[in-house]
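Changelog entry

Holo records now carry the ligand SMILES as an explicit input line rather than a separate metadata file. Below, a converted record for pyridoxal-5'-phosphate, shown in the new format.
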Amino acid sequence: MSIKENLNNIVKSIPSGVTLVAVSKTKPNSDLEEAYSQGQRIFGENKVQELVGKYESLPKDIEWHMIGHLQSNKVKYIAPFVSLIHGVDSLKLLKEVNKQGRKNERVIPVLLQMHIAEEDTKFGLDKEELNTILTSISDYENVDLKGLMGMATFTDDTAKIEREFNSLKSIFDAVNNQGDLKLETLSMGMSGDYLLAISCGSNMVRVGSSIFGARNYNP
Ligand SMILES: *Cc1c(COP(=O)(O)O)cnc(C)c1O
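Structure line, unchanged by the conversion:
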C-alpha cells in the first residue's frame, strides 16, 4: 500500500482528540511530502541532524516533534523551531531546553519521558525523579510542560504492554489530580500498539512504519 493509503487508514482508525505524529525518521523528503499532501502536518524525528535538515528543506507549516533521546549539547540546533520535545528525561536536559528557549526568546513545549518498560535500555524518569522535576517546574519559564511520554517494552505480550500503558496513564492522572499543574498530552503508542495505547488513555500516538513502511536502519 502507498503512504497515502496507509496514512488515510490510520487517520480513520484514530478517534478525534488523538494527535497523530507521523514518525518519518530515516525516510526521504519525498515520503514526507506525500504525507504532507494528504494533510499531515506533524512529523516526528529522532536524530537532531536529520530533523534540522528536513526542517530546512520542507514546508514551514510543519510542526516538528523531537521524539528520540536528546543530548543536552544538541538542544541548541532544534531550539529555534521545534514544536514539541517528547523525550525530556533529566533535570539537566530540562535546564538546557529552558536556557535555549530563553536564548531564542520562546517557550519550548516539552513532555517528560517516563520509564515504564521493564527493559533498562529505555530512557526515562522514575516517579521520584518526576516529582523532583515537578516541584521546580515553575522555575523554568522558557519551558512549557505539556505532558508525559512513555515507551512500552518491545514484546509480543499484549497484556504486559497494556500494564505499562496503564501505569503511565495512572501517573498522568495522579499529577493532574494532585496540584495546580495541568497536563494535556499523554504520548504513548507506536505502529504495533497505538490502538491499545489509545484505549489506555493516550491522546498522542507516534506512528512510523505503519505509514511509511519498514525502516532499513535506525529502529
Ligand atoms: C521510531 C519511533 C516510533 C515509531 O515506531 P514505529 O514502530 O515505526 O511506529 C515511535 N516513537 C519513538 C520514540 C520512536 O523512536
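Spot-checked after migration. Residues 158-178 form the longest helix (21 residues). The chain is about 40% helix and 20% strand.
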